[in-house]
Amino acid sequence: MAKRLKDLMVFNGKPDVKDRTLFNGQLLDQRREDVYVVLHQMGIIR
Q1: What is the C-alpha to C-alpha distance for residues 12 and 4, in angstroms, rounded to an integer?
Q2: Percent residues over pLDDT 90 in the chain
Q3: Dihedral (Cα; 33, 36, 37, 38), 10-degree rounding
């Protein structure tokens, strides 16, 4: 049981490079514009 817990702790460490989310600047800009439009429509931003 202790060995199993030790193995789980090793696997729950930092994610591998392939599992990390890649930065997508274009998608980030689109989301930012979408949020701005919604806030403007709600009247929060003029």
Answers
A1: 12
A2: 22
A3: 120
**C-alpha span between 26 and 23 (Å, rounded):** 9
Cα separation, 46 vs 43, whole angstroms = 6
pTM (global) more than 0.85 = no
Q: Which two tokens stand for residue 39?
A: 């806030």
The structure tokens 């929060």 sit at 44
Structure letter (DSSP) for residue 45: -
Two structure tokens written together for 10: 């090793």
In the block, which residue shows the tokens 């591998």?
Answer: 16
Any idea of the CA torsion for 30, 32, 38, 41, to the nearest 10 degrees?
-100
